[in-house]
Amino acid sequence: MNERRFELLKSAPLDSWVALSQDETRIVAVGRSYSEVVTLSEDAGVADPVLVKTPKEWLPISL
Amino acid sequence: MAPNFAVNHRLPYKKYPAPGGFYYAASIPAFIAVPGKNSPRSKRFDAIIDSGAASCLFHAAIGRALGLDIENGDLEYTQGVAGQSKVYLFDIALNVVGETILTRAGFSDELPIAGLLGMRGFFENFRITFDPASLHVELERFHHA
């Protein structure tokens, strides 16, 4: 699952919200905002996705 | 009185893209709600466990979707390696690994990810063991007597 999830995140647009399926093995929706991706994932029939906010650039997190 | 340890969760680190490769982080799905009966809850989102964060911190868009008027929260300045940031504090119910925790958490539009699980609210309620050899994190919820 981890490798599949990693590949999905690599393929996802940056600075976006991505809705993954419950088992995190497929992308069910992508949106520019949290509200948009929630709507799109529900429209796709996935009521309980796992949302990932992709950063503007993938870098290790250090805040 | 000593805390009472109960539930134990062992979860794999997650792999994230990085320039030229990848990195691993301990992250888990979480969701939040405004405290109160029948309050709406967020969708589950990816939250990174971060012992360097003083409190839990979430993207402001999640709070707005719950009806929080983010800019009217209590303003707090936080200091990170990238400099000072403004966060707005609200009391929320945090749910992770099936456990609900009431805490005061920060919200920010500047957060590059969905959520961070920090000291207040998360670390103060779990015994957390990072195991970089097996790429797993163990969480033991304890309840203060």
Main attributes?
A: 63 residues; alpha+beta; three-stranded antiparallel beta sheet; globular; B: 145 residues; mainly beta; Cathepsin D, subunit A, domain 1; six-stranded mixed barrel; 4% helix
Q: What share of the residues of chain B does DSSP label as strand, in percent?
A: over 45%
Helix content of chain A: 25-40%
Helices and strands of chain A, in order, run as HEEHE
User: Biggest interface: chains and residue counts?
Assistant: A-B, 27 and 33 residues
| SS class of chain B | mainly beta
Q: Describe the largest sheet of chain B.
A: 6 strands, mixed, barrel
- Please list the strands of the largest sheet of chain A in the order they lie side by side: 2-1-3
Shape of chain B: globular
The CATH architecture of chain B would be: Beta Barrel
- On the 0 to 100 scale, the average pLDDT of chain B is 92
Number of helices of chain B: 1
| CATH C-level name of chain B | Mainly Beta
Order of helices and strands of chain B: EEEEEEHEEEEEE
What is this structure's SSE topology?
The complex is a heterodimer of chains A (63) and B (145).
Chain A: H1 2-11, E1 17-20, E2 27-31, H2 34-43, E3 50-53
Antiparallel strand pairs in A: 1-2, 1-3
Chain B: E1 4-12, E2 14-18, E3 21-25, E4 27-33, E5 44-49, E6 57-59, H1 60-65, E7 74-80, E8 83-96, E9 99-108, E10 115-117, E11 126-131, E12 136-143
Parallel strand pairs in B: 5-10, 6-9
Antiparallel strand pairs in B: 1-12, 2-3, 4-5, 4-8, 6-10, 7-8, 8-9, 11-12
Description:
The complex is a heterodimer of chains A (63) and B (145). Chain A has 63 residues and is α+β, with helices and mostly antiparallel strands. Chain A has helices at residues 2-11, 34-43; strands at residues 17-20, 27-31, 50-53. Chain A has one domain. Helix content of chain A is 32%, strand content 21%. Chain A has a 3-stranded antiparallel beta sheet with strand order 2-1-3, with helices on one face. In chain A, a hairpin with a 6-residue loop joins strand 1 and strand 2 (27-31). The radius of gyration of chain A is 11 Å and the shape is globular. Chain B is mainly beta and 145 residues long. Chain B is globular, with a radius of gyration of 15 Å. The mean pLDDT of chain B is 92. Chain B contains 1 helix and 12 strands. Chain B has a single domain, classed as Cathepsin D, subunit A, domain 1 (Beta Barrel). In chain B, strand 2 and strand 3 form a beta hairpin. Chain A binds chain B through residues 2-3, 5-6, 9-10, 17, 19, 33-35, 38, 41, 48-53, 55-56, 58-63, and chain B through 12, 14-19, 22-23, 25, 29, 43-46, 48, 50, 52-53, 59, 61-62, 64-65, 80-82, 85, 111-114, 116. Strand 3 of chain A pairs parallel with strand 5 (44-49) of chain B.
